[in-house]
Amino acid sequence: MIGILLILVIAVVAISPGVFASQSPFSVNVDRALEAPSVGHWFGTDDVGRDVFARVIYGTRVTLSICAGALVISALLGGGLGLISGFVGGRADLLLGRVVDVVLSFPPVILGIMVTGILGPKTINLVFALATVYMPVFFRIARSGAMSEAGQTYVEAARSIGLTERAILFRHVLRNVTPLILVQYVILFPLVLQIQAALGFLGLGVQPPTPDWGAILQQSKDYVLLAPWTSAFPGIAILVTALGLMLVGRALQRRLDQR
């Protein structure tokens, strides 16, 4: 319940950031640079006088949109290929499995750096990099689920009444594998959030002046001792979001295991 409450609050902030932040995240006021948290600026100001609270609030939508979009692409492509591979089997399954093993041999951060480094530091490239990193995970989850379902009695019964393999796969097997993919989606979200923030901190994510939690951390790294609030609050936002998602993901996983 704590995780659900945190996710609901964060979702509302992401949908309507203007309700919570009255100031613009782009408004520059050099005369008020690096001011400590106060009534006028709840989270203080950064090195060019921008309101940190407004940038963290507006960065919620940017950061979570990138993570959610990347995971949707991973789930659709990786899960779809894994579903077909596990159900059909044969040489196609063997070939796809070897390709996935090669991709999984790279640490997620290193693979993300490689992809964004080759394509360039753009938002669309960051989404593609995150999708590439976690596509093999969805592939293996869907593949194992499809292989397990392929041997069930209801599949044999469907074949016996004349249903095609395509109909069995997408009308019956898919609906039983989908819960596994959805649970994995929630579990992976905190990990994707961390990788996205890490790439943003390295300057390979969203570029200034667009507010993004990782980018805010990168821009404030030189002021950690002088103005710690510039990096503390976006870090706390990442921590709270990851915590809420992790609590909900683990609860869903336990519920599925009980079934």
- How many individual helices? 10
The main β sheet shows up as: none
Mean pLDDT, to the nearest integer, reads: 90
* Integer count of domains: 1
Return Rg in Å. 22 Å
What is the H level of CATH, i.e. the homologous superfamily? MetI-like
Percent of residues in helices: over 70%
Residue runs with pLDDT of under 50 for 5 or more positions = none
User: Mind telling me the CATH class?
Assistant: Mainly Alpha
Shape: elongated
Examine the coordinates and then state which fold CATH places here, giving the name of the CATH topology: MetI-like fold
Kindly report how far apart the N and C termini lie.
20 Å
What share of the residues does DSSP label as strand, in percent? under 5%
Task: Count every beta strand, where a strand is a DSSP E run of 2 or more residues.
Answer: 0
Helix/strand-derived class? mainly alpha
Q: Architecture, CATH level 2?
A: Orthogonal Bundle
Task: Please describe what this structure looks like.
- This protein is mostly helical.
- It has one domain (2-6, 44-258): MetI-like fold.
- 74% of the residues lie in helices and 0% in strands.
- It contains 10 helices and no strands.
- It has helices spanning 2-15, 17-20, 52-88, 90-104, 108-119, 123-150, 153-160, 165-201, 213-219, 229-258.
- The longest helix has 37 residues, at 52-88.
- The chain is elongated, with a radius of gyration of 22 Å.
